[in-house]
Amino acid sequence: TIFTFQRPLNSFGMCDRTKNTNIRLSLPAVCVVWEIAMIILFGVFIRYNWESDAHWAESKHNLSDIENDFYYRYPSFQDVHVMIFVGFGFLMTFLKRYSFGGVGFNFLIAAFGIQWALLMQGWFGSLDYSDGKIKVGVENFINADFCVAGCLIAYGALLGKVSPVQLLVLTLFGVTLYAVEEHIIIKIIHARDAGGSMVIHTFGGYYGLAISWMLYRPNLDQSSRLQGSKYHSDVFAMIGTLFLWMFWPSFNSAIAGHGDGQHRAFINTYLSLAATVLTTFALSSLFQKHGKLDMVHIQNSTLAGGVAVGTAAEFMLTPYGSLIVGFCCGVLSTLGYVFITPFLEKHMKIQDTCGIHNLHAMPGFLGGVVGAITAAAASDTVYSHEGLVNTFDFKDEFKDMVPTVQGGHQAGALCVALIFGIGGGILVGAVLRLPIWGDPADDNCFDDEAYWEVPDDEENIIPNIQYNNHMQNKDVETIKPHRRKRCSRCF
Amino acid sequence: TIFTFQRPLNSFGMCDRTKNTNIRLSLPAVCVVWEIAMIILFGVFIRYNWESDAHWAESKHNLSDIENDFYYRYPSFQDVHVMIFVGFGFLMTFLKRYSFGGVGFNFLIAAFGIQWALLMQGWFGSLDYSDGKIKVGVENFINADFCVAGCLIAYGALLGKVSPVQLLVLTLFGVTLYAVEEHIIIKIIHARDAGGSMVIHTFGGYYGLAISWMLYRPNLDQSSRLQGSKYHSDVFAMIGTLFLWMFWPSFNSAIAGHGDGQHRAFINTYLSLAATVLTTFALSSLFQKHGKLDMVHIQNSTLAGGVAVGTAAEFMLTPYGSLIVGFCCGVLSTLGYVFITPFLEKHMKIQDTCGIHNLHAMPGFLGGVVGAITAAAASDTVYSHEGLVNTFDFKDEFKDMVPTVQGGHQAGALCVALIFGIGGGILVGAVLRLPIWGDPADDNCFDDEAYWEVPDDEENIIPNIQYNNHMQNKDVETIKPHRRKRCSRCF
Amino acid sequence: TIFTFQRPLNSFGMCDRTKNTNIRLSLPAVCVVWEIAMIILFGVFIRYNWESDAHWAESKHNLSDIENDFYYRYPSFQDVHVMIFVGFGFLMTFLKRYSFGGVGFNFLIAAFGIQWALLMQGWFGSLDYSDGKIKVGVENFINADFCVAGCLIAYGALLGKVSPVQLLVLTLFGVTLYAVEEHIIIKIIHARDAGGSMVIHTFGGYYGLAISWMLYRPNLDQSSRLQGSKYHSDVFAMIGTLFLWMFWPSFNSAIAGHGDGQHRAFINTYLSLAATVLTTFALSSLFQKHGKLDMVHIQNSTLAGGVAVGTAAEFMLTPYGSLIVGFCCGVLSTLGYVFITPFLEKHMKIQDTCGIHNLHAMPGFLGGVVGAITAAAASDTVYSHEGLVNTFDFKDEFKDMVPTVQGGHQAGALCVALIFGIGGGILVGAVLRLPIWGDPADDNCFDDEAYWEVPDDEENIIPNIQYNNHMQNKDVETIKPHRRKRCSRCF
Predict the structure, then answer these.
(1) Farthest-apart Cα atoms in chain C, separation
(2) What region holds the Ammonium transporter AmtB-like domain (chains A, B, C) (predicted)?
(3) In sequence order, which residues have a C-beta less than 8 Å from that of residue C389 and are 6 or more positions away?
(4) Could you report the per-residue pLDDT of B324-344, keeping only the tens digit for each?
(5) Rounded to an integer, what distance in angstroms lies between the CA atom of residue B37 and that of residue B30?
(6) Taking CA atoms, what residue in A is nearest to B238?
(7) B59 with B50: CB under 8 angstroms?
(8) Per-residue pLDDT tens digits for B136-150
(9) Would you state the torsion angle of the CA atoms of residues B211, B215, B220, B221, taken in this order, to the nearest 10 degrees?
(10) Which of B456, C198, C423, C467 has the most CB atoms around it within 10 Å of its CB?
(11) What is the DSSP-derived secondary structure letter of residue C317?
(12) Residue in B closest to A29 by C-alpha
């Protein structure tokens, strides 16, 4: 007979027997142990702050309930929350057979990271020295989401090449590094960074790239047929793109000052993002044969304007200033996808699945520079005296600060973010190279089969038809099986 | 010739001629009659309340416009609204050929239910005795969404096995039962249940399970090949999961007290959900061969923490208390999917398509227990006196209530929810067994073809190829046609 | 051998060599030039308004930060933003091979349009005559989103048949026309239109239909096999439908008056939409063979109630009045899909891909009529005196206006919207007929291949199998290739 279905494909010899992706012991153990640790530490340290404690009824005095910080920040918090879980999660579903891993592991590490971030950031920033407790309210939860964003950015570089246990380790260290870095930048250096161009994006971007460099896989291109998208996986990724794009104004304004600060941060971000879309479409078309648009650019580079305007979002950047930043970012980020990502992979041994260098690292760095310049150029005329003090927090020990010096501090902060990102990434990358974390062999990269029960789509039948047909034609080279079957001996 | 396409598959004999799914008369009739009834009843009863009436301009006196309840609750309302329509809707798209029915019928019954709920809940709770009118504002609309959630939970157990007309009947009775149950629990028993662990989830869960028990289909496994997911239908379901997960803090805080109440309810829910994710991933991996994760668990059990913290969300549960609740729920719910759901189907004749027993019924019950304990343990020290009065509404006729007694009332309320769920479900199930509702035959279950014009995907060609090939090989047993063709005589 | 794969299909002769869809020069040029123009114009004209300027700290006097307009409107703005980018974007993904174009070009023209709208609307409405600057705050950004909505509606009629460059031209003119029309309707005629039934939907709908009439393609049905949906593209479109449906209450209340105005606009819209869902399901089932539901109706007609209640949303329409409007709209819109759209295509030469006539044009017109009647019937008794003045803005030069006259003004405004839509559409349609815009040949319509790098799904192999099989059977008529291959000479 011509056709024999359900024929095992193990004759393809795709198994790498040196790697074992069975995480049946390690993943449950890590999750349960860490969650128990969280419960104990929360029990010892975390309490409601005065705005979320029932004592508010007595302690609020003449304040109206509507002046509880909850009403200033909760709508923005929810937008940020959507960015973290749906935005980042769905942006990473673009691979044809790694959508479960993209959205699922994003979910896992974000849910873990926010708990650890509440503790780490709390020890540095919200500790009540009178009773040794961390007092949390809505702003802490926004900051926890921000902190996790740094780790999710790093995940973008590693997408499809690491195990969930590695991701949990990456997140544990990443959150720790972030909290220290943030404390140095915001409290010690006294830099301003409402949208986290430096603290989140520069740090997270270089953290991920450094880890990717440490985990370089020289033979990865062998499985590159899975490293692309499908028609519908690209549409799924657009869900991520759009929720990130739409809610980025909330991201950059979420912890900005009450009143004009949040208002202005939203405006600057909105405008920068709008400009980025136009230059991204322009460059994407310009650098493709026949002028066709590339979904990779549309999904990613359109967001770069939000990153680059992060630090300066609450400053008087002016509306046209925001447009200029967005304009440049769309160009820079798309060029990055066209030229820099291939260069990094070929010559620098940095494999960057999602192109975080173009979406976060470079635009984040640019954002730090824009922030430093804008801060240095601030003046009483533009801000009003009280506005200047409010915006740059020139109070208490920093009450004698002047804008030009502030600009210098901003530049210093950018260096700190870079150092923490690269240095931390190299250290954590070394840890992740230990052969105990259940990472996939090159052949299993970008394949949900490694860590997920994947439903048997009827589509699976196709490659077999093709296979058999091709066999007949002795044309083995062109076989593109839809999904590899895994050798049963490997488990 | 070897291949003959478009060959009718009616030789498969899949038609059950005793069932007629043609709803061309019944569905339009029910929809139009009920909508006209709604218009008349709204005309007689429903009016704007003082905060949404144009008289507000004169009647608000010294209040600022920002103190209109709209600004306290509208952002939360919108999040709840997203949960009802996108959250529940997309969570039910996971079946490979029932995505239209999942998201579409969810849309239909929610849109109908909210209207009926405004009336039913209004008669019990918002009736202005001076003029006999129900006065509605934003809080009524949140409560209507809540009420519908109970029916949508019940739909989860029946997904793929009932007709839209049955669902409308289920919703009509479900909303009615809910309104009575809610009135008894909240007003008469004076229990607190901001997030609806008892009122919504325990009631809705057992209501659906009891109906499913009444509608048991002993031969259903014959069409079980449609009772699974596809790769992309699982990704669609993750949209539902994530929007439910992200906005659950808004669900539990939407009708909590202004100020600290909403603030605290959000914090408790956020933390409980975060902990649930970790234990769900842990247990999912632990109970699968090779430690692979199961999308069913990730899509559903990760949400159980939000259910279980519902009643206690606005109490001083403490952050670590929330983590403990979430921890237990992730374990309990995942174990439910692994052990209890198969047991219920085999031994209790309860077929639970979405596993609502694990996601709503059990966690809801647990939430009621947690609420009772937390209420009984409340004290002036922890809440402040005014905080205690505010949180538990110890006012007017209940001004002499003490926390321990309140705990007892909470436990009593839980029993009421259980009784209404199980009892109501049996009654409504009996009604739904009447042979007039156009429900599908066993063979048409989980198949959108029964009630929807389904586009002709080119994929449909595949099974035919397979079919013909197999015919040649005399290997009929392994045929898995992608979609059954329906016998034309049945219509 | 029986099968020969990768066989080029150019023997199908599907190439129209008179059209060139290469936009490698035109798209980048237009995007970059216009973005630079935006930067210059923003530099000259656009500044922060007093609520987003750092001077707020000094100029707010006794206001609390929470009374900054940002907190009144930002949550609604974000919902509107989601409607524009995800709602409209995903609603247009329903075509089987035009999902990239649907969501992608929607993204491009919305991002461009909002910038131009800020300028155009600013010159008419927010110009500070003391310094010649446009002062922008959150309300301007909501209005910019509204303005773009008009153009996106027009895109719906043209979906799949125009190039991105044409869409940018359509948007440039559309925004300009909208700004003039809005100024005449709101400022000169002094009509009220909070939800934009007239200004947005009537204008946008007829603008798109008139352009479609000008760009009539008599031979389009040749490629009609691509003008349908797939199973999963229909599910994607439901994302758009639901986000539009859920957030429409925010759309209609976003720029309504503070306090009761926003509160009431939300209630009216919510109720109207709920009623529409029921009659849409009823009519969809009634007009299909076997009573099956049609996804086209569920995706679109369920939204018509939100359109029709737009103008009257902030009036005292009463809850049952809203239900009646929604009831009628569901009927009208579904009938439109069943009878009017085919009629328009056959006899009026108007090809309306998304059916905007049924979703926007007709319901928008109806909304204008409802608004005129409701305004004419307003009275001091129903609104209170101050409420009437607030709702209809009977102040300054219009302080002697009475409701009946206002009703006449509303009717006049509706005519203005119609004239601008039809007239503007004809003019812009004439411009778009120039052969310089890179629009696709009939055979390339509804096909992403024309403007996008489309990933090579394995599914593509199917038609070839089919093709070869059929060739053998000499049964050429039934061939439905999944995706056309494009003739390489055409590029």
Answers:
(1) 88
(2) 60-451
(3) B57, C395
(4) 999 999 999 999 999 999 999
(5) 10
(6) A103
(7) yes
(8) 999 999 999 999 999
(9) 40
(10) C198
(11) -
(12) B282
